[in-house]
Each structure stands twice: as C-alpha cells, then as structure tokens.
Design goal:
The protein is built from twelve helices and 13 strands. It has helices at residues 5-18, 20-30, 53-56, 62-67, 119-128, 160-167, 199-212, 248-251, 264-267, 276-281, 284-294, 298-309, and strands at residues 33-38, 43-48, 83-86, 89-93, 102-106, 132-137, 150-155, 171-175, 179-184, 191-196, 224-231, 234-241, 270-273. The strands form two sheets. The chain has a ten-stranded antiparallel sheet. It has a three-stranded mixed sheet with strand order 1-2-13. Strand 3 (83-86) and strand 4 (89-93) form a beta hairpin. Helix 1 packs across helix 2. The chain starts with a helix and ends with a helix.
C-alpha cells in the first residue's frame, strides 16, 4: 500500500483538467465568502458554500438511503472520476469541496460507515497523506453516505483547530511513555485529543474511549466525529463525542431556521452555511448554542473522564 500527498495533489490537478463539475466547484471555492467570529482563545470561521447544499440537507433516514443509488459505490461514480487505489480504499477528489484540496476516501466495498475496526486505517492515511488532515463523520454525525465506509481528507492549515489545539487549555486524562490522552473542556465543544507516535497505543486507547461513549438506541456506534493528522512523527487525533446529529435551528421554521448540519469540519472551526440568508444571519450566539447542543454536556464529559481514569 503506497500513497503520498504528491500523488493526491497530482490526482486533483488532473481531475480539474478533465472534469467540469469538479473544476467549477473548486474554482467557485476561490471566491467563496467567509466571515470570522473571535472567541479570544479560538476562532470560528463561517463559509458560505452553496455547493454543499446536497450534503447539509441530505436525507439519511433508512428509507431514503435504501431508495437512492449509493454515490460512493465504484459502479455509480461519475464517468470522469478517477481514483488512486489504497488497499481496500480508493482516494477520490470530492467534487463538492470545502477545502482548497478535498478528497473522499471510500472503501471499494459497500459496507456500513463504522469506525470500529478501521481507526487504524485512518492513522495510516494520516501518515501517508501527511499534508492533509483526515476526518471521519459518523453515520449520524454528518456522513451523507452512512451506508458506505469512507474518510475524507482536506489540506492542513485550513481548520483553525489544528493550531488552536496546541495552545488551548487541556487536562491530561491518561499518560504513558507512549501516549497522552487529553480532555478539552474550554473550547465550547467538549472533546478528547490523543497524541502519540505509536499506532498500536493509539488504537488501544481509542477503543477504550469509544467503549465508554454512550451508544444510543438503534445506533451501531457512539455518535462521533474524528479529525486526525500526522506531524513530525506524531499522530494528533481529536475525538468529538456527539449528543445530537442536527441542531434545533436546522428544523426550525421561519426566522429561527439555520440550515447547518455540523460535522467534523464545523467542529474543526469552519461552519458551513449553504444558504446565503444563513451566512448573513448567523451570530456568535448561534455558533455557541449549536455547539452546546450537538456536543456532549459537561456532565457526560465528566462521566467519560472518570471511567477512563479508573
Ligand atoms: Zn456504496
């Protein structure tokens, strides 16, 4: 299995030469409107991105999923789409980008989106595609194909979280000579940061954490978003346990409505608003309310930390 950031970049450039939809959407991204909210220790950027409407408004109930053609299955990919094989996966250009360089990395096989068993693949991808941050959206946490296993990758330096996480207040939950697991509670979104040079240690501790997260009725895994990257021989992996898939404002009628369906990118500090009215309307308070609503509460966070420390 071999893959480099350079190969991924070459794929992107060749696809932009031959695939009009991808070219149009990546070009549009260059002039996309953004604004930023400053919360003193960190920032949240808002990106007005109309091409993301399909994903943000995606119907992911069992019936809708059954009745549509899976857009990540090899047989259903657009004719122009080319991929780089990577073991059981292929690296594809995401034609509806958020990042200036944005990839989707699905398995060839049509199999449920579940992180247990493939977290190690995420670490491998982060190491091989070192110029990119790899992310995972759980089946009820922003994945628009909850029935087909996939990761995404976006170029480093885009998400405010990558830098902020270094300086934000952290508490050590677990520490060994191989790994540190931090809890982050002063970031408006409760989360964990795993820092290690050892892949096996990362998988062991990830599984432990995963095992302590709440599994909701009828779900196959605890609701999570994960961002992982590799830097100077070290993996950084941020796990966001989720309380809710979509916030109140997503379903609200009239003035209260904001079409925002948060996933890894939003939790990484870039909120996506596919509609202009929402881009204009959204305030700092909305960002704060949404994060509070979709991430786990301080009480639940404390319970997980207590279990990890036992
Ligand atoms: Zn599929």
């Amino acid at each position: 299995m071999s893959l480099t950031s350079k190969q991924a970049k070459e794929l992107l450039h060749s696809q932009l030469d031959e695939w009009i939809l991808a070219k149009t959407n990546f070009d549009a991204l260059k002039s996309v409107e953004t604004k930023e909210f400053d919360f003193s220790d960190f920032a949240i950027r808002i990106q007005f991105n109309p091409a993301r409407i399909q994903s943000s408004a995606a119907k992911i109930d069992a019936k809708s999923i059954r009745e549509r053609k899976c857009f990540l299955c090899p047989d259903n990919l657009p004719i122009e789409q080319k991929g780089i094989p990577y073991g059981e996966y292929q690296v594809l250009v995401n034609p509806y980008p958020i990042f200036p360089e944005h990839f989707t990395i699905p398995t060839y096989k049509h199999t449920d989106q579940l992180i247990a068993g493939i977290y190690g693949d995420m670490l491998d991808l982060a190491k091989d595609m070192e110029e990119y941050t790899i992310f995972y959206n759980g089946p009820k946490c922003g994945a628009s194909a909850p029935d087909h296993a996939h990761f995404q990758a976006g170029n480093k330096g885009f998400l405010p979280l990558e830098k902020e996480i270094k300086s934000i207040t952290k508490e050590t939950v677990l520490k060994s000579d191989k790994l540190i697991l931090y809890a982050i509670r002063q970031y408006m979104r409760n989360c964990f940061l795993l820092e290690t040079k050892d892949k096996d240690a990362a998988i062991t501790v990830f599984n432990k954490l995963y095992g302590f997260l709440e599994l909701k009725e009828d779900d196959k895994e605890p609701m999570t978003n994960i961002l992982t990257w590799y830097e100077n021989g070290t993996w950084y992996s941020v796990v966001f346990p989720r309380e809710k898939h979509r916030p109140y404002c997503f379903f609200a009628e009239g003035d209260d409505n904001l079409l925002i369906s948060p996933a890894s990118v939003d939790l990484g500090g870039v909120f996506i608003t596919p509609l202009e009215k929402d881009f204009k309307k959204i305030r700092e308070k909305d960002v704060k309310d949404i994060l509070k609503e979709i991430c786990i509460s301080d009480e639940k966070m404390q319970l997980v930390i207590d279990k990890l420390k036992m």
